[in-house]
Fold each of these.
Amino acid sequence: MLDQQTLEKLAQMRLTAMGQEYRRQLESTEKSALSFEERFGMITDAEYITRQNNRFKRLLSQAKLRIHDACLEDLDYEPRRNLDRGFIARLADMSWLYESRNLIVTGASGTGKTYLACAFGNAACRRSFKTRYYRVNRLLTDLTVGQGDGSYNKIMKELKKSDLLILDDWGMALLDPTKSRDLLEVVEERYGYRSTIISSQMPVKMWHELFEDSTVADAILDRLVHNSYRFELKGPTKRRVETDEQETNISSPSPSGEGEAGP
């Protein structure tokens, strides 16, 4: 009777995982072999782990990463990619977020810039940092629309609160004065308080040419570039490699003589 009341109280307090672990222990024939401290520790761990996992899932969902399952552990360190394993390891603890530092990832199309940016985004979510992914053109469009429908301040508030903002496909189009000022507003609101990851096909030395207003360009780049860590990815496009592998798998005969698609 007392056990049932305890389970009901745990349910009322929404300590679901604790209740499940407590019920499991009650039904276990080995519970007498454990001390009170060991059993209570296991019950507490069950609730803690569940809450941590749920928080990670929530943050990952809110981040809206383009590649949500990208992770640093799965990075390809093939020599031609110019990706230093030691450098990744030093940044993997995400301590640079506490310092409000930025990351810049450049390289040709298909070299894995978006994957690397999203992998750091995933790592940030695992460490309970609020993260948000945007393609630059989409963000600027949302801000333009927001000025008309009244959602501008809401978007800016969300961007300011995000511990890590990922801006993908930087430099895909020239920025007129209006879009440049919107981007400056985003950067200025976050400067010194939050971190940003930028992914771009264009090398940093050419970024100034993206802006019609050179004064605004100076202001934005000064806040983004000078306190950043940089990756310059190289090598052949990974999309072509993946396509070639898929075509090879499809064309290779199976034991029965028929083509077999890869996993």
Note: Residues 243-248, 250-263 have pLDDT under 50 and may be disordered.
Amino acid sequence: MTDQPVLTDEEKGALLDGMSSGEIEVHSSNGPQYAEVREYEIGKRSRIVSNSYPRLLAVNSQLASRLGKQVEQMLNIPTEVSSVGITNCTYNEFIEAHSGLSLAIEFTAQPLQGAALIHTSAPMIGHLVETFFGGDGNDSSHEANTFFTTGEINVARLFANTLLSVMQELWAPLSAVEMTQTSAHQATDVIEGIESGDTVIVSEFEITIAERPEQFRIVWPLSTVAPLVPVFEGQKRERDAAEDARWGKALSTRIVDTVVGISTTVGHTGMTLGQVAELSPGDVITISNPQRGTLLAGEVAVIEGRFGIHDGRYAIEAGRWLGHEAAANGAAR
């Protein structure tokens, strides 16, 4: 290793002169050349589109756990579901990767626009149907089928209903959506409303029924879940001031029609625990003559007033609202 500095004093001086004058001497095989130093504006950082959706991954993990229990009850056979991961691709790339016989159950998630798919392969459908009707899941004859029967589609729809029910519940913190099946397709390349070049978010799952693993996928067109992508990425949703105002007005309008239970205390007395233990039907408990009473609405004290009789009924004459200076008018009975 040499003790010589990386730059000599002459080199440092040349660089400083070049920086101050705007010209730097550049040596090449053709002799010295002079290059001008120009200003370079660094552009704004481009937004990086991430394929990682941590919030959606967390929901998928919960979905897998709960779905496994639901399908196990439906089939009456040990079932486990696990979340494999999430990928982004075009719809054309997706159907090329799953070109074999498959069933795509289309569903909507109102108020989100467009449709999404539950994609299942022929082996999974055959395995699902066999175990649904009490088989042991070892029959592989369904793998040679070239189409799905009505019965097979109906069993697949039952599975889809279970999946959508669990998913709708787990999606509630993300967005209040209503998930509903619309149709079933025996070829994923004929789905209307989804173009081959459309970007899709594919959530992949593995389902093990009777110790035999199969796969299914939930396919979301990016255009359908675009409003929720920031939520999938873990960002907080912005509050809509206009929507909050509408909710506030609706609540204010309806709250006056809310029915609440009204109650009051007639009087008070004190007894020992022994005296209470000796009570029997017909015994009389003496209370002090009540002078004032408190009116409770839903177990919350709201009005204080004078206790008495009105039109032959025990009543409280409202004196004042508790917590407010204004006096209340009228009598509560």
Note: The longest helix spans residues 54-75.
Amino acid sequence: MPASSVNRIFPVLATILTLLAFASETTGGADDGFRDDARTKADFESRLGAIFESGGIPTGSETMKQLALEKMGPISLPAVSPALSTLTAAYERARLATLILGHLYLCGKCDKYHANLAGGVIISPDGLALTNYHVLDNREAIVFGAMTAEGQVFAIDEVLASSKKDDIALIRLRGAKNLPFVSLSATVATGDEVFVISHPDGFFHSFTKGYLSRKYLTPNGKTPRLQITADFAKGSSGAGIFNLGGSLVGLATATNSIYYEKEAGTPGHLQMVIKSGVPISTISKWFSETPQ
């Protein structure tokens, strides 16, 4: 090969290697299908901390005061996204609309911000999102914020509506524009297939699939709940329960472990874990149009 050709190839190879290195650095591995959860959490902490220190955003206590007001709509629904025909397409839409949502706090042993993280779902391109009430009900919070699947970090600007009984809150992300979002669906029947994208114990954007096992009322408050077989665990509160068309039918909210017996007051022989969610139908009153 002529020397002139070699000289032309080397700069091209250098550019390709630089791009590959950048891709590996930003995704945490050589294959962009692999997630670096520790780096994701660290990015949330550093970026939301920088936003908070720049000033002008609500503190954690201010957000909690808004939450406690339990305001209700009417709020206009965004444009409806068409149902998708494949699970792969529905998953991708839902993943892009799934937030890592939580707050920063100080441990008292160092001066670094630490994050306590859960989930949320974007329902409009200008940053309306749903999460659980209890995710925002935390007195140690310095500031609340959210990270998109693509790494954008926003402060929570306002709590627009909330219900402690239903365990759900509607928030707005400050400065959000043109975000991917999912439509709401109040229609779901026992036996329907559903999937969840959640963050169990910091394993961010975990996908599980199952069925709507039943609809039930809580024993004390008689609050509507969805019981599903798709798995989730602690850290998943506020994450989405989706139908196979990619619409949001509920939010993961609680688990209840069933044991066969207790020995000396200690649970033993775990038999089943009930996974419960808040149905979208419970908040239809917040919106000027009823979710289909």
Note: The chain is about 25% helix and 35% strand.
